[in-house]
Amino acid sequence: EDSGDQAGARALMEGLRTKSPKDVDVLMRIAQFHQRAKRFGDAEAVLRQARDLEPRNQNALFVLGAVLERQKRFDAAESVFREALAVQPDFAPALNYLGYMNADRKVKVAEAVTLIEKAVALDPENGAYLDSLGWALYRQERLPEAEDYLRRAAVKEGSAVVLDHLGDVLSRQGKMAEALEFWNRALTGQDEDGELDRVRVAAKIKDAQARLGQASRVPQPQPQP
What we know:
This protein has helices at residues 4-19, 24-36, 40-53, 58-70, 74-87, 92-104, 109-122, 127-139, 143-156, 160-172, 176-187, 198-212. The protein is mostly helical. The radius of gyration is 20 Å and the shape is globular. The two termini are 24 Å apart.
């Protein structure tokens, strides 16, 4: 249930939407507000309004695709990301998001690698893109290449999800002690969007400790700043 402050902010956003129904910049700000509150249905409605006004606005299309993905409406998200890429084929955020989304689900993985490689070529130092490419290569069992990209991503990005990915790649190669190190770090790493499956990571840590003959101990997540 909304607090008074949240309800007031929401009413303010809806007032802005009513006052400026054809201002795409205003609509994008309103959508961002709903996204932060995880009201993805509300964000989607505003973004569809923005897309109707400017069908070739790549940023509106990208955010709409992301909102659909957060609702696990993957086919709809893919369609919208492809709309964005039809407007601008070298739009790195859409290349990366579509590629990662499909690779993570083990869908069209070969194409996903190609898409993410294009994103990395456009922005070689982007840690999120390096992570996406490493994860997509992992899906193809190209483990040494995956490890290389994920190590680079861990230096650039270092989020909990990146650390978890690197742990998985190391584990698959039999590097269990190092995998355990990265899974432990993942549980205490930055995870602002709550994307890390903490129960799954804890289970992997327990299994790795058993294989290595260690006493079972799982680090407690630190509160996010």
